[in-house]
Amino acid sequence: MTGTDPIAEARAEADADALFVLTAALLTPARFPSVLGDDYPAACAALGLQPYVDGYGLVFGQDGLGARWTVVVDDVSLVAVAISSWDCGMAYDLSPDESTVVAGLPGWPLAVVSAAPGVPAPHDPEPEEGDPAPLVPPSGDVWGPAQRRLGADEVALQWEDWRAQVSDGGEGGGTPEAVPAAAGSAEAGTEAGTAAASVPDPYDGVRRALSELRGYLEEAPPVGRVRSASTGEGTARVLRADGPGWSFVARTDDMAFVLLDELPREVLPVARGPRLPALLAGLDAMAVRTA
């Protein structure tokens, strides 16, 4: 028997158009995947989007043929509810309406460890003429701005563990502001070591970051460059900030950490000292805030 089966073709086309949702993320001024950029406009530009004030939801899934897709929607509330439900261990069927879809981008910009059951393994879709290159997560084998920002995000998430490694960084501690009290390794990629004689002096990089942060108080940076989130402990907040070549993590009631492009995977603690509290208060006042 020769020729094609119209019913089989219709089923194959329907499978290709299906989207099996795996996870999602917000792309808003206050909350965006920092792997995409130092601030909200930069993160939007990385995906070819306009930095609208209301932001977007990013839905990561596979089509019926297993291809990876990032679907951008403008129904931010729907995606936020789904993420909150999943964080609480609750099931939530995230099914954005087609009318809310802004763009469908091949690939995933973040590492997604799960896969849809019953479809082929995740892979990039077959490109068609004019399609953008598939989005890919950053490599763990190199160190650069994306890996540095991911490392800072991890420090913010695991603050207590990193704080416990520094014994003299608190109020009145023995290490002055802008001088690293100790150095640790940020697990934002593969483990690597560098001979002490070949690494740059961290003092200059930390001072540069602090100086540029003070500059943010004088001239506001792009929206999302400084973000403030609740710690869940009283009035204390966690600050995340980024700039050219550096990332900054701090608690408003404690010390800070800096990561630098020129020092791969090193986390540099900055003691609270006499000047840091005022800087943290100023940054928190001008930051984009999440709950």
Topology:
Layout: H1 6-17, E1 19-27, H2 40-46, E2 56-63, E3 68-73, H3 76-87, E4 101-106, H4 145-157, H5 159-164, E5 184-185, H6 202-218, E6 226-230, E7 237-243, E8 246-251, E9 256-260, E10 266-270, H7 276-286, E11 288-289
Parallel strand pairs: 6-11
Antiparallel strand pairs: 1-2, 2-3, 3-4, 5-10, 6-7, 7-8, 8-9, 9-10
Protein name: Integral membrane protein
Organism: Streptomyces narbonensis
Biased composition (Low complexity): 176-199
3D architecture notes:
It comes from Streptomyces narbonensis. This is Integral membrane protein. Residues 166-202 are annotated as: Disordered. The protein is α+β, with helices and mostly antiparallel strands and 291 residues long. It has two domains: 6-106, no CATH class; 145-289, no CATH class. The chain has seven helices and eleven strands. It has helices at residues 6-17, 40-46, 76-87, 145-157, 159-164, 202-218, 276-286; strands at 19-27, 56-63, 68-73, 101-106, 184-185, 226-230, 237-243, 246-251, 256-260, 266-270, 288-289. The strands form two sheets. The chain has a seven-stranded mixed β-sheet, with helices on both faces. β2 and β3 form a beta hairpin. α6 crosses α7.
